[in-house]
Specification:
Length: 124
C-alpha cells in the first residue's frame, strides 16, 4: 500500500506531532500543502480506509465536535511496508548492502544494528 503525496503530507503532520489531531489541527499545522482545506475529510477517510490512521477520540472544535486521529504505524514501519509491496521485491541482503552504503551510517548505528541482529537471532 502506497500513500499519495497529499496523504503523506497528512501523515507527516501526525508523525511529527506525536499526538492525536483533529481536522482543525491538521489545517492549522500544515502550512505547505498540495491539497485544499475542503478536501481534508476525504484525505482522512482515505487514510482510515487504508488502515494507516485510527480514530483516537472526539474533541470540541468551536461549536461542534470533531474526531481526532493517530497513526497506526510509525514512519519507519510505513516505509518498510512499501519496500515489500512492490511487484518486484528487493532481495533483503542486497537491500541492506545498499542501505549500508548511505552516508548516514555511523559506527554507533552499526553497533545498534549488531545488537538488533543478536536479539533477532535469539528470537528465531
Amino acid at each position: 500500500m502506497e500513500l499519495t503525496k497529499s496523504e503523506m503530507e497528512i501523515m507527516d503532520v501526525l508523525w511529527e506531532n506525536g499526538e492525536a489531531l483533529s481536522r482543525a489541527d491538521f489545517l492549522a499545522r500544515q502550512t505547505e500543502k498540495t491539497w485544499k482545506d475542503s478536501s481534508i475529510h476525504i484525505l482522512l477517510n482515505g487514510l482510515l480506509n487504508k488502515g494507516v490512521i485510527r480514530e483516537a477520540g472526539v474533541v470540541k472544535c468551536s461549536k461542534t465536535y470533531g474526531r481526532t486521529f493517530l497513526p497506526t504505524l510509525t514512519r519507519e514501519e510505513y516505509f518498510a511496508t512499501t519496500i515489500f509491496s512492490h511487484r518486484f521485491k528487493p532481495e533483503l541482503t542486497e537491500l541492506f548492502q545498499a542501505l549500508l552504503q548511505r552516508p548516514e551510517v555511523t559506527k554507533e548505528f552499526l553497533d545498534n544494528l549488531e545488537a538488533m541482529i543478536r536479539e533477532k537471532r535469539q528470537q528465531l
